[in-house]
Design goal:
single chain, alpha/beta, Aminopeptidase, 37% helix, globular
Length: 368
């Protein structure tokens, strides 16, 4: 998935920050005084043009209570979705890869959950090269469900539904699927009336070549691209030796950020973790690495969450988050052991809450 490094907020520091005024966009993007940092990573996002429609500035994020959101998500049923996806993989050769019966059954489960919550999910089909010896053409699909609200400032919240062929993909990316499903249900249960339309997206064939999200962006008209104010990505949210990271929107930590508006997304993630006294750090956008790629290339502001893959946990990270220093953040990354036993349930709650908070902040931001 991604590389990561910098911007750890120790728990004691986070408590001190809570006693000060709310963070400004300047302090959110850089390292506040006293923050322990390590060397910047080398990853960089592809450079892209700014959108011609300015993203919401997210000032109304204060209308959403970050602590209340986290409390809600500590009680929500993300693990139930993971249990269902594990059963589906077990019944279908041990995986949920695009183009397989496991993917189809995973999709039906997602659609059933969305319909039960009051959404009208649709499938967006596409073809892709399977990447095997003969590069056979295969068909897959994305699942899209949307709220009401103005399309002039559309917010897309997405994560990939498929697994690799070698395993069930419960952390990568069943965890992201579970988070998005619960956010969609939570918004309905809360009676949220979005100012801006939210599109919940479950991408196909990410593990092949990001095919589903690329297809979605390719199908947007120029006007629709301009009207997409934010893309929020979640790819691996429950790594068993994981960390809390969100993307370096302005490039201040890793040298190359996203399009204009990405900094605002970073700032709002920062506010969630700060308000809840949770250590967190930034991670770079990596070219071609996850479903944010096509959005960045199209000039759409992007951000999101990641809890770590095959990189080793540093001593500094172990001090901030607990866990095993020197161990892989996810020792079962892209392996058969990426099962229900390969997740940190508390981390999944926290990361799901963070994504819910930013989704709500964008959904309720006043239009331009």
């Amino acid at each position: 998935m991604l590389t990561l490094r910098k911007h750890v907020f120790p728990s004691i520091l986070a408590v001190l920050l809570l006693s000060s005024t709310a963070c400004t966009s300047e302090s959110a993007a850089g390292s506040p005084p006293g923050v322990v940092t390590s060397s910047p990573g080398s990853g960089a996002a592809p450079r892209s043009s700014s959108p011609s429609v300015e993203a919401p500035r997210l000032e109304p994020a204060g209308r959403v209570d970050a602590q209340a959101v986290l409390k809600d998500f500590k009680r929500r049923g993300m693990v139930g979705h993971l249990e269902a996806l594990q059963r589906i993989a077990d019944d279908n050769g041990g995986n949920r890869a695009s183009g397989t019966s496991g993917y189809e059954q995973s999709a039906r489960y997602v659609e059933e959950q969305l319909r039960a919550a009051g959404y009208n999910p649709v499938r967006q089909t596409f073809t892709f090269d399977e990447g095997r010896r003969n590069r056979n053409q295969a068909e897959s699909f994305n699942i899209l469900a949307e709220t009401g609200g103005s399309a002039a400032n559309t917010v897309v919240v997405g994560g990939h539904l498929d697994s690799v062929e070698d395993g069930p993909g419960i952390n990568d990316n069943g965890s992201g699927v579970a988070a998005i499903l619960e956010i969609a249900k939570w918004m309905k249960e809360k009676g949220t009336d979005p100012t801006n339309r939210v599109v919940f997206a479950f991408w196909g064939a990410e593990e092949n070549d990001l095919d589903g999200s690329r297809h979605y962006v390719d199908e947007l008209s120029e006007t629709e691209k301009d009207q997409t104010s934010a893309y929020l990505n979640v790819d691996m949210a429950a790594s068993p030796n994981g960390i809390r990271s969100f993307h370096d929107g302005d490039g201040s930590d890793f040298g190359d950020g996203g399009p204009e508006g990405s900094k605002e997304i970073e700032d709002v993630f920062f506010r969630f973790f700060e308000a809840n006294s949770l250590p967190a750090e930034t991670t770079p956008f990596e070219d071609g690495d996850s479903d944010y790629d096509a959005f960045l290339r199209a000039g759409i502001p992007a951000g999101g969450l990641f809890s770590g893959d095959e990189e080793s946990k540093t001593d500094t990270q172990a001090q901030a988050y607990g866990g095993t220093p020197g161990g892989d953040l996810d020792p079962c990354y892209h392996e058969a052991c990426d099962t229900l036993s390969n997740i940190d349930r508390a981390l999944l709650q926290e990361m799901s809450g963070a994504l819910a908070y930013v989704t709500a902040a964008y959904a309720l931001a006043p239009g331009n």
